[in-house]
Specification:
Helix content is 86%, strand content 0%. It is mostly helical. Helix 2 packs antiparallel against helix 3 and helix 3 packs antiparallel against helix 4.
Length: 123
């Protein structure tokens, strides 16, 4: 390859590379990943805020058993919500499996606590 051909190839490569990157959204992929991470983080924080509000709003009766259950239901629901966020955004197979297990276990416990509340009226 002559120097003239080599120079022309280099100039052509340098001219095409930015257009190729822009056309194929290389920076956009990074932006999408950033947006997805930010979305997951915002969703996690919103879920935690809701959980905290719901726990604070739980009616306190002075009966430790009732008060415990009243606060644990929204606490467990917060865990379910966070695990569902993990399933929407997470990629790690082991953590996604853990999230599915958390959802199943917490839903079972929420159902148990609701049944307990229904059969144990507060005084």
């Amino acid at each position: 390859m002559s120097f003239a051909h080599w120079t022309a190839a280099l100039v052509l490569t340098l001219a095409i590379t930015p257009a190729f990157a822009q056309q194929h959204d290389m920076p956009m992929h990074d932006q999408q990943m950033h947006d997805q991470k930010a979305g997951a983080g915002q969703e996690m924080m919103a879920g935690m805020d809701k959980m905290n509000r719901d726990m604070a709003a739980a009616p306190m009766t002075g009966d430790p058993d009732h008060d415990f259950v009243a606060m644990m239901i929204p606490h467990h629901q917060g865990a379910v919500d966070m695990a569902e966020t993990e399933l929407r955004y997470g990629k790690d197979a082991v953590i996604r499996h853990l999230a599915r297990e958390i959802i199943a276990a917490q839903k079972r416990e929420i159902a148990f606590m609701r049944r307990w509340e229904a059969t144990h009226p507060s005084h």
